[in-house]
Amino acid sequence: MTDDVVVVDTMGGLGDLLLALPLIEALGRSHPEARLTVVTTAPWHVLLERDPRIHAVVPVPGRDGAAVTGAVRPVLERLRPDLAVTTNRQHGLPELLAAHARRAVTDLWRRPPADEPVDLRMLRLLVEEGVVDPALATLPPKVVLGEDEVAAGRRVLDSLGARAPVLVMPDSGMAVKHWPLASWADVVRGLAARGRTPVVVSEVAEQRRVLAEAAAAAAPALPIRGVAGLAAAAAGLGGAAAGGDTGPVRLAAAAGLPVVGLFGPTLAARYGYRGAAVNLQGLPGCPVRRPTAITEQECWWEARCPLTADHAPACMADIAPAGVLAALLAAA
Asked: InterPro entries annotated for this entry (predicted)?
């Protein structure tokens, strides 16, 4: 009998936790008698707070090694779990888990193929390790929401007069993933002309201003679970969402909303959205892209593309507004 299962997901980003949701659910369902504890980075830990399969959520207050081990070590020392799994091989976590758990699975990034989605790869490895039921090997990411949270999202959409709402999520966090704002404006105008209500979900003032001028409504600032509730409410109204390779779009998909993903420096076959999703790949034959080593791409950290005179990401500019608009109209 498995009494305690600990999952350590401390990669740090919102998208990282969302990619881990299927394995968290699969472990909970494969060991229903166990107490499931998840250690993950704040503030994203709140996305797990209503999941009935999770016994406890431990937030990590930072991304550095001291913060991570400072949060993980006491949990392992207290529980001495039967099974511990981590998505992060840094900060000495593999050794820490191996020293405190009866069974530790610590390398879910080994030998990744370029054409297998990251979250499915992790599930498949857990099945191979014998700790997840093979019937759960294709679980999609899913955020557990309450009816009150979905109702709150519906009130926001009602206040905007949204009909067949399309959540427009232009802020991709990293500049190398940004789609040109002028292209977003073209899509917003196209949606409005066809009776859809584009709703901008972004805290970047310039994005909100430009897209408002193009006829988009703007969602108010919302906590992260509020964004999930908004997405779930939009799904109930026959809506959709669009954005780059970024956490908010991944969250919308996990809340059940059809999404259109815009992928440039990352490969859609590996990082694309699952479920009701259309993933558009810019510049498929890019010679700079390294699908299984994205942080080693020369464009990654400074968004300086070697293929363009102005160094703007050629892969993102390669995605046509007409294609994005068509995919959204088909989804919404």
From this structure: Glyco_trans_9 (IPR002201), LPS_LOS_Heptosyltrfase (IPR051199)
